[in-house]
Design a protein that fits this description.
heterodimer, A: 254 residues, three-stranded mixed β-sheet, elongated, B: 986 residues, mainly beta, four-stranded antiparallel β-sheet, globular, ER membrane protein complex subunit 1 (chain B), disulfide bond (chain B), transmembrane helix (chain B)
Chain lengths: 254, 986
């Protein structure tokens, strides 16, 4: 850790003021729609912050703004700026110093998507991380997932990169690290199934109807009596012999 | 692959000739074949059960004759039980409801009747002590229970008086009918605390207005009319219950710790009575500083007044026997007992004696009888009570006195120690039996492999690293040869023993298990069960026989402490002894202490323990081992600093190297907060993820990871079309179960979250609507099974979640939580379960080849072994060719409970609290321990005993066939040669 040059630490503290170009990633319950800012502004936006330090201290800075719209169909879109020169360097350093295992962290504030009357924002953040090296190696293509609970509160955020592995490949082109290629999804809890009684009863009824046909009413015995009767007879006879002390008749067969 | 087949199951095991089976076979048509039931002759062969009652609150002996065998106890576990005092075995036991509803307030014994007030004065019960049957039960009026006593009319005990906060009621002993009930006057201001009857026509109720005055009310037995009502000035008195007793002819004796004086007051006095004060100083008595003096009196028969002799306890080990003189207000000291731990009165016939326990030496206490009238010691009455080295101190003394043939007093004594153990001692100091009642409340347990035998260990030592370096080639060869010879010797001895034992009938062969003879058996079926109980007593129990091999009482353990038992080093690292660590955490302060011990012998290890000045939040066992093969335990304190144990240089170095790959999580259920941390090189931590479940909506009730010793043999499931569906086997996965704060039946829900413990990623999030806890769940392999209460349909339901990666694995060589970008497929199905459950666990086997079963503890005391096959979300609703090929059972909404799946047949386990499973050396066999009030140990074979020959395997037949074939070959070979030769000559 001590081997990390101090200058990079300083660089990472400098906030990014210049927003050169806005890049939009947007989604509608998981689907990328492509319409950026021109959707209606009935939703609200929360900051998406990130931190990628070579040392372990987290200093979160603005990455973009999450445009959230609650209601029946929750949707979310993200507007984010390009990475600055300094940030790119920091990221690359984080990757180069592999022993450090630098982490790239993101965080969003805890908000509720549905409850507009009460205070939307609660104290605290939801945090997630991915290895900085995998972010660089995937050329900043990440998948961010927001999780909500039943009442629309954001409960968790996760970030993965595709591919997720760190193979130590050098990213030559600086341009690859300029803009995020983000896929954004929002996931609400699924409803766990109830016992399927109706379908089962229906199926049973059908089976009963089928069974109602006369030719299939033959019982097990009626069908297989020709095998069972000789077997029983044989067993009974051998048993009788056994009792009368005639073990010899069984011989080695037993 | 597995075509449906006809399966013939024999309902009874029989090694006799086939013919006898004709009447006994049943042909069952099914797709699967599971037969779980034990055979009749296997009962008790692989399983055992021990029944407990808990910490004794009240104990009585049946009658005062030498030959009586029964004793009765009522315990804090709401149990009323009877023991055989000769053997300590349970004669009968009544298990009431748990919690305050079934708590036993008092137990009174008279003749054949045992009277009990249950549930803070809710019920009055009378039991027949002979057979333990209920005579009658009476519902009492509301109001909290204060006291109860027998009431005699004309020398025969006919009634029982029950004093409640605001009423006094009398009930007939014969049928429980209420004779009368009277409201107590002014019950808001006066605290009525005692009721007394000395055989007169009245029953007295004593109440107190703290630090003001004492109220005495006399009720007529006949109709409950108030005969007298007196108020006595007593500004020093705060509680009748704790500081007053009745002695002699109805004299109330109180002790006041402030003025250091005894106060006497005749209860029955006609005129306005007054307390008369006797200073303790005037009797040459001194109270230990800070000690609250206690009075002990005795009323041998409810129809007569109490004894005029009584004990006054002046210090923790200082008692005085005092006598109230006939005048009613002067006191004569009879004898001073110092040191004396415990005192008790006992009456037989007309004689009353006092038993006093005094410390004798380090290892024993002496109990002596004293004549109550004179305070003289009775000759030849000394009994020694052995004190165990790591046992509890004596806590209570119950004496069973009887008259011998020569009219002298004989006695037996029951000693209760702080560790809840009961010891029954007989003259002249023989311990008849000991019951370890701490085992009624097992908190956690582990099973540890037994060590190897001496010869095996020697062999191990030979191939140890150190030995190889020291010795040269030639000594190694010699060593090898000598060890081979010892092995041969051991084998021959074993054979001889087998042969010798085979000639004896089975019943006589009984190997006494002692700590010295412990050694691992061939298939590692016998293990050491290390059990931790709530009282802080640790036990080492042999899993085969159930005998307690060692016990260790930890003093100074808080009653509400939380325990975590960790096996740091197994038995596999000879010559290093196995090592277990018990983490004891005080729930109030969060401060933790460690107790490190050898699980085989129970001895405390003398290892330097780390100082833990701060509350501990989390502990985790790393797979990292130190140079002595002990796994490293990390303890995280409330400042997120990490302490390693053991913390040798080697360990710290390893930790520094691995720091960036050590992740852990913390869960604060009160804040709904789950957060993940990563270790830094300086053993501080860094918070890397955070998930917050708002507590306004739902609260976290339980979190479970996977068991670290679990093996999964197959990576996927072969489907009907011969493709493979790969399981999502994430070892870091956590199952988090929540319950909604809204308890309305329509809106209540149970949430199930699957969270990756390293990255904090929510893998799956499901909500079970209209559901309520208590939720029991098992998390294993790639599945989670949970059980909940459906509030809408009002029934219990089982739900199963299975995770699959799909038909292709992302990275088949290694699993990393950091590199699994795709979410797994989640399949879920729900079933109706026709019974509530109390606990659930999954079977575990050595290699994970055997199919899994769920072990479900039912409130009835049965343990159900439910095949996981029934809980498979891929059970098809419509049977297809593929699903049949895959051996899937068609979906049925109701889960069956078959009685042959009860692994404990009729050996019910009362109040099952937990089930522990451990693998054995046989892949087919899983060891199971169910604990609660009782302890039950057995083996289960989820896929039947595919790797074991049956008990009735016909060795004679198979060997005779082999020999016959061998000889036939030899003979035919010879014949063929002769024939060839003959042909050649032709």
């Amino acid at each position: 850790m001590a081997s990390v040059p101090r200058s990079f630490l300083l660089l990472s503290i400098i906030p990014t003021i210049l927003i050169l170009c806005a890049d939009f990633a947007c989604c509608n319950t998981g689907r990328k729609t492509g319409d950026g800012l021109d959707t209606d502004f009935s939703g609200f936006s929360v900051p998406l912050e990130h931190s990628f330090q070579v040392d372990d201290v987290s200093r979160f800075r603005m990455r973009g703004a999450l445009q959230l719209r609650g209601g029946r169909e929750t949707s979310v879109s993200l507007s984010q700026s390009q990475l600055s020169e300094e940030d790119r360097n920091t990221l690359k350093v984080g990757e180069e110093v592999a022993a450090v295992d630098g982490l790239y962290k993101i965080r969003v504030p805890r908000v509720s998507l549905t409850d507009r009357q009460t205070e939307r924002q609660m104290d605290g953040y939801l945090t997630a991380f991915v290895r900085a090296c995998s972010l660089v190696e995937s050329h900043l293509s990440d998948v961010i997932t927001l999780h909500t609970d039943v009442s629309g509160y954001l409960i968790g955020v996760s970030i993965v990169t595709i591919p997720g592995a760190c193979r130590g490949t050098e990213v030559e082109d600086e341009v690859d690290l300029e803009a995020f290629n983000t896929t954004l999804t929002i996931i609400a809890p699924t409803n766990a199934p109830q016992p399927e009684t109706a379908l089962f009863i229906e199926r049973m009824d059908i089976e009963h109807e089928k069974r109602g046909k006369p030719q299939e009413q033959k019982s097990f015995f009626a069908k297989y009596w020709m095998y069972i009767v000789p077997l029983v007879l044989f067993l009974m006879m051998s048993g009788a012999q056994d009792q009368s002390g005639g073990g010899a008749a069984n011989g080695g067969g037993r | 692959m597995y075509p449906p087949s006809l399966v013939v199951t024999f309902t009874k095991k029989s090694s006799v000739k086939m013919a006898k089976l004709t009447s006994l076979f049943v042909i069952s048509l099914s797709f699967f074949c599971i037969s779980e039931a034990v055979f009749e002759d296997q009962v008790g062969k692989f399983d055992w059960r021990q029944q407990y009652v808990g910490k004794t609150l009240f104990a009585h002996f049946e009658s005062n004759t030498q030959s009586s065998k029964k004793m009765f106890v009522a315990t804090d576990k709401n149990i009323f039980a009877s023991f055989n005092s000769r053997t300590g075995d349970l004669l009968w036991r009544h298990v009431d409801k748990t919690g305050p509803e079934g708590s036993i307030d008092i137990l009174l014994l008279h003749g054949q009747d045992a009277l009990m007030v249950v549930g803070d004065g809710r019920l009055l019960r009378s039991w027949d002590t002979n057979i333990g049957g209920l005579n009658w039960e009476a519902v009492l009026d509301t109001g909290s229970f204060q006291a109860a006593c027998f009431v005699a009319i004309q020398d025969t005990v006919k009634l029982v008086a029950v004093l409640k906060k605001a009423a006094l009621s009398l009930h007939y002993l014969s049928n429980g009918h209420q004779k009368w009930v009277e409201n107590l006057p002014d019950s808001d201001a006066v605290q009525y605390q005692a009721v007394y009857s000395g055989g007169e026509e009245e029953v007295y109720v004593l109440g107190v207005v703290p630090n003001s005055h004492l109220t005495i009310i006399a009720y007529s037995l006949e109709d409950g009319e108030i005969i007298k009502q007196r108020s006595v000035e007593a500004s020093w008195l705060s509680s009748v219950e704790s500081s007053c007793v009745v002695v002699g002819q109805g004299v109330l004796m109180c002790v006041d710790p402030a003025t250091l004086a005894l106060y006497t007051l005749p209860i029955q006095a006609e005129e306005t009575p007054e307390f008369s004060q006797i200073l303790l100083q005037s009797l040459d008595l001194e109270v230990s500083p800070g000690f609250q003096p206690v009075l002990v009196s005795s009323q041998p028969h409810p129809a007569r007044s109490p004894l005029s002799e009584f004990f006054l306890q002046l210090g923790p080990d200082h008692h005085v026997l005092l006598q109230l003189n006939a005048d009613g207000y002067t006191i004569a000291p009879l004898r001073d007992f110092q040191p004396a731990f415990l005192v008790s009165f006992a009456t037989t016939g007309k004689k009353t004696v006092a038993a006093v326990m005094t410390p004798k030496n380090e290892t024993a206490c002496a109990i002596n009888l004293f004549s109550v009238d004179s305070g003289r010691r009775l000759l030849d009455t000394t009994v020694l009570f052995p004190l165990e080295l790591n046992g509890g101190k004596p806590h209570a003394l119950y004496v069973h006195a009887f008259l011998k043939k020569d009219d002298s007093v004989g006695y037996r004594v029951l000693v209760q120690t702080q560790d809840h153990a009961l010891t029954f001692i007989q003259q002249p100091g023989r311990v008849v039996w000991t019951r370890e009642e701490a085992l009624a409340d097992v908190v956690t347990m582990e099973m540890v492999d037994l060590p190897l035998t001496g010869t095996q260990a020697e062999l191990e030592g030979e191939f140890g690293k150190k030995a190889a370096i020291q010795d040269g080639l030639f000594p190694m060869v010699l060593k090898r040869l000598s060890s081979q010879v010892t092995l041969l010797q051991a084998w021959l001895a074993h054979l001889w023993k087998l042969f010798y034992e085979a000639r004896k009938p089975r019943g006589q062969v009984k190997n006494e298990v002692t700590i010295e003879t412990l050694s691992r058996d061939e298939f590692n079926l016998q293990k050491m069960m290390v059990m931790v109980t709530a009282s802080g007593k640790l036990f080492g129990i042999d899993s085969k026989s159930g005998s307690i091999l060692w016990k260790h009482y930890l003093e100074n353990v808080q009653p509400n402490a939380a325990f975590k038992l960790i096996v740091q080093r197994t038995t596999a690292h000879f010559p290093h002894p196995p090592q277990c660590t018990l983490l004891i955490k005080d729930k109030d302060t969060g401060l933790a202490t460690l107790h490190v011990f050898n699980p085989i012998f129970g001895r405390k290890s003398h290892i330097a323990l780390p100082a833990l000045p701060r509350p501990i939040l989390q502990s985790l066992l790393l797979p990292v081992i130190d140079q002595d093969y002990a796994k490293v335990l990390l303890l995280v304190d409330d400042q997120y600093k990490v302490t390693a144990f053991p913390s040798t240089k080697n360990v710290l170095q390893q930790l520094q190297e691995m720091a960036s790959s050590i992740f852990f999580y913390l869960i604060r259920s009160d804040q709904g907060n789950l957060s993940g941390f990563r270790l830094r090189k300086d053993l501080s931590t860094e918070r890397i993820w955070e998930v917050v479940l708002p507590t306004e909506v739902q609260k976290i009730v339980a979190v479970k990871g996977k068991r670290p010793n679990e093996h999964v043999h197959s990576q996927g499931r072969v489907m009907g079309d011969r493709s493979v569906l790969y399981k999502y086997l994430n070892p870091n996965l956590l199952a988090v179960v929540t319950e909604s704060t809204d308890t309305h039946p329509e809106r209540a829900f149970v949430g199930v979250f699957l969270v990756d413990g390293v990255t904090g990623r929510i893998i799956h999030e499901a909500v079970q609507r209209k559901a309520r806890g208590p939720v029991h769940f098992v998390h294993s392999e790639n599945w989670v099974v949970y059980e909940y209460w459906n509030t809408k349909s009002r029934r219990n339901e089982f739900s199963v979640l299975e995770l699959f990666e799909g038909t292709e694995l992302y990275n088949s060589t290694v699993f990393s939580s950091l590199d699994r970008p795709h979410l797994p497929q989640v399949l879920q199905q729900t079933y109706i379960f026709p019974s509530p459950i109390t606990t659930m666990e999954a079977t575990l086997t050595e290699k994970g080849i055997t199919s899994r079963h769920l072990l479900v503890g039912l409130p009835s005391g049965a343990i159900l072994s439910l095949p996981k096959m029934f809980l498979d979300p891929r059970r098809p609703e419509v049977v297809t060719e593929h699903s049949r090929e895959e051996n899937l059972i068609p979906y049925a909404p109701e889960m069956p409970i078959r009685t042959e799946w009860f692994i404990n047949y009729n050996q019910t386990v009362a109040r099952v609290k937990g089930i522990y499973t451990a693998p054995s050396g046989l892949e087919s066999t899983c060891l199971v321990v169910a604990y609660g009030l009782d302890i039950y140990q057995t083996r289960v074979y989820p896929s039947k005993q595919f790797d074991v020959l049956k008990d009735d395997y016909d060795y004679v037949l198979i060997s005779s066939v082999l020999f016959a074939l061998f000889f036939a070959t030899m003979i035919s070979k010879r014949l063929a040669q002769v024939k060839l030769l003959n042909r050649a000559w032709r």
